[in-house]
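Researcher: I've been going back and forth with a colleague about how GTP-binding protein might be arranged in three dimensions. Neither of us has a model we trust, so I'd like an independent prediction. The organism is Aquamicrobium zhengzhouense, in case that matters for your notes. Sequence below.
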Amino acid sequence: MHNTPIAVSVLTGFLGAGKTTLLNRLLKDPALENTAVIINEFGEVSVDHMLVEQASDGIIQLADGCLCCTVRGELVDTLAELIEKSQTGKIQPLKRIVVETTGLADPVPVLQSIMGDPVLARMLRLDGVICVVDAVNGAATLSAHEQAVRQAAVADRIVISKAELAEPHEEASLRARLSVINPSAEVLDAGRGEAGVSQLFECGLYNPQTKTADVRRWLGEDQAHNHQHHDHHDHDCEGHGCTHHHHHHHDERVKSISLVHDKPVSYSTVEMFLDLLRSTQGEHLLRMKGVIEVVEDMDRPLVIHGVQKLLHPPAWLPEWPEGPRGTRLVLIGYDLSEDYTRKLFSAFVGEPMIDTADGAALSDNPLAIAGFKA
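Model: Here is an independent structure prediction for GTP-binding protein. You can compare it with whatever you and your colleague have in mind.
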């Protein structure tokens, strides 16, 4: 049996953004030894020069120790088959799996496949979502396709490709737009060599080497600043050659909400808040990440990570990162009600707003929840 869960990274991005080009380059890095790559078609990945043997149906063994396999049936079945082969010695033990989505895919169902299956949830850990955005066509794609906005919104890392082909002001405008859609993602330029293995992988919450930096990044104090300026962004561009305000139809539906509470809370309070939030807003939640100071164990932060209604098994970090303690939650949603979410959070952490129930009233009398209008 595997004692250490296998890290899974999801590579997403719209058609023609450059996912496969990035993947081909990453596969040549020795650091990705013992990695399996799940793709849709072998033809998209140039593995011929590295091909060693056909390890089994649908799985190709590469010379550098990587595997490539195609999605056959459900992604869950493909992942389970890979894990079984890794555990039984039919293939080498895997350290990492990279899932490349199709260009039109919403990555959220892929994340749900990884986190929603009870067996897979124990065997795998979601490392992070990498989204590739084309500097030349990215702005037009975001304007035309809701899926492209959702891909960028759920990402931990956004890789800008083809920047050398775009005008400088186009890339700057695209970066500004992406920072509004997803203020917690790190934006990297592939052309400048910023999108290597070390920058793209181990960007989750559970890696001992990098967790502190990432916790601080997606819980950064500047997120609240970014979010407060969200509504004004369109107008700030007026007269500066920026067309940002003309095509925000999809962008404006994405919200990144930071919830902050500076005192420890009980584990049961966290559970009740998350249960109620997921039951009422689950369809609108794309991702949720948080570090929580729990009264039952204040020496270690509790880390939570969710996708829509699914919650990854909570994990304890060995120690607090530098900076403030308390509860820091980041919710990324599509048509998510910020007013409802903030009122609900305030009620549960004991800071009820005017004309709202407190946590005790909500938990003692579930009917009181009807007073909250999503």
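Researcher: What would you highlight for our discussion?
Model: I'd start with this: The domain at 6-218 is CATH 3.40.50.300 (Rossmann fold). After that, consider the following. The longest strand covers residues 124-134.
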